[in-house]
Amino acid sequence: MYGKSPSCAGLLLLGIQLTALARIAAVEIYTSQALEAVNGTDVRLKCTFSSFAPVGDALTVTWNFRPRDGGPEQFVFYYHVDPFKPMSGRFKDRVVWDGNPERYDVSIILWKLQFNDNGTYTCQVKNPPDVDGLIGEIRLSVVHTVRFSEIYFLALAIGSACALMVIIVIVVVLVQHFRKKRWAERAHRVVEIKPKEEERLNQEKKVSIYLEDTD
């Protein structure tokens, strides 16, 4: 007897299940996508990931570089249990590992930026059985000076507001201090005037008594 052939509905369901399983098993990469840094400084190329499988010794991380002005892709860094720095090329002695796989962080630091470091840096993570997924990209722009961003303007606004509040508090304290000082001076004058006024009244009283006696 011939076995029953799978139905179209069964094949469709199987395909949906396999697609969903592939999505769950894929490695997700997270990067800043675009980054700006000043020539001659160091920059951290941040790359984190999420994986369906637990992180183990099978984890591999590959960083590569594509120049902005074109040319072949270049090796930057490799990690498998231990970090492996490039032994030659433009990134020799200029890149160090700054990641922590247990925290799903596979970032690196690039030292002494140069203008020819402009380009796209790719971060690829494989954590078997999770070996599929998109490759993370960071477009690095090396500039003379960093342009002000919204964060800098926000920080400047907050700093200005705090400075204004401090000035207002100082003014209020000084005004209160001078008012108390003025009140103290007035009270002191009243204290000085009162004995003099009493003495004058006593003198007038004595003169009045004397005049009465003479009469």
From TrEMBL:
This is Myelin protein zero-like protein 2. It comes from the Eukaryota. PROSITE patterns: IG_LIKE. The gene is MPZL2. CDD domains: IgV_EVA1. PANTHER family: MYELIN P0 RELATED, MYELIN PROTEIN ZERO-LIKE PROTEIN 2. It is found in: Membrane. Residues 1-26 form the signal peptide. It holds the Pfam family V-set. InterPro entries: Ig-like_dom, Ig-like_dom_sf, Ig-like_fold, Ig_sub, Ig_V-set, MPZL2_Ig-like_dom, Myelin_P0-rel.
